[in-house]
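Technical annex B. To support the medicinal chemistry partners, we prepared a structural model of the target in complex with S-adenosylmethionine, based solely on the information shown next.
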Amino acid sequence: MRVLELFSGLGGWRFALGDRGRVVAAYDVSEPANATYVLNHGDQPHPRELAAVSAETLAAHGADTWLLSPPCQPFCRMGNREGLADARCRAFRHLMEVLQEAPPERLVLENVLGFLGSDAHQLLTERLRAQGLMWLDLEACPSSYGLPNQRPRAYVVASRQPLVPRPLPQREPQPLAAFLDAVEDPSLYLRPEVFARHRHGLDVVEAQNRRSTCFIGGYGRRYVGSGSFLRTPQGVRRFSPAEVARLLGLPGDLRFPEGLSLEARYRLLGNGLSQPVAAWALAHLA
Ligand SMILES: C[S@@+](CC[C@H](N)C(=O)[O-])C[C@H]1O[C@@H](n2cnc3c(N)ncnc32)[C@H](O)[C@@H]1O
């Protein structure tokens, strides 16, 4: 596969792709995302607003596969659910035009569950049908792979070739202890008055538990509904970026640019892909 990685973030699709293919170009507008991408993958993504990249420019990369994770806020439970009318769908709408002019042989899109059944999903599947691609709508959560993390996501996997069904495993999630740092960062602990203010809404787990909630991009500054917090004998703390990365199945040696704030690290991870689930979606391509 010669892959165009669109909305590339820290390069979650590239990690999941492994030796199934090669990324020929990646695109993302975010400077911190691109700096993280180049550090981990060696190649610099195109720092472009995708809505302004022409079909000819994209076609010139010679890719046969699109892997994409468009912004999910227009389809989120906590968002406005405006779908295509949301300004953050502009690049997606543009790509649906490109799909008519220069369609790939294969495409895998990841998003929140609310994407399925949305007007954006309808537009995508109309375009796929018109171009003669078959597709599967999939839903999966990394907990099936034994990761103690809830991150249910939707995948649309499309190809001109017949798709291969891949049953999800049903592994018992491991205890969180297996994902924790050997040495804790004391600055991750909540001050007692902060904990007291948010305690009723916080999802607090312990090392022996086998679950955590979905870590979202705002985990570094929000409390309720942003991801789990860990209770230890010392108090209650956030999971570190390295711990969140492990819970996503990302490589243990994932690197961030020096000086990138904690908040920005959580934002990149919260936008990221759970690796075993993304690899499972890719495995449906023959
Ligand atoms: C959901 S995240 C994708 C994360 C990625 N799959 C990963 O593994 O890290 C969406 C990404 O799209 C980028 N983005 C959003 N709107 C964009 C646009 N109009 N053009 C280019 N990139 C955009 C954001 O900067 C963000 O990194």
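Notes passed to the chemistry partners:
Residues 245 and 269 are 7 Å apart (CA to CA).
The mean pLDDT is 95.
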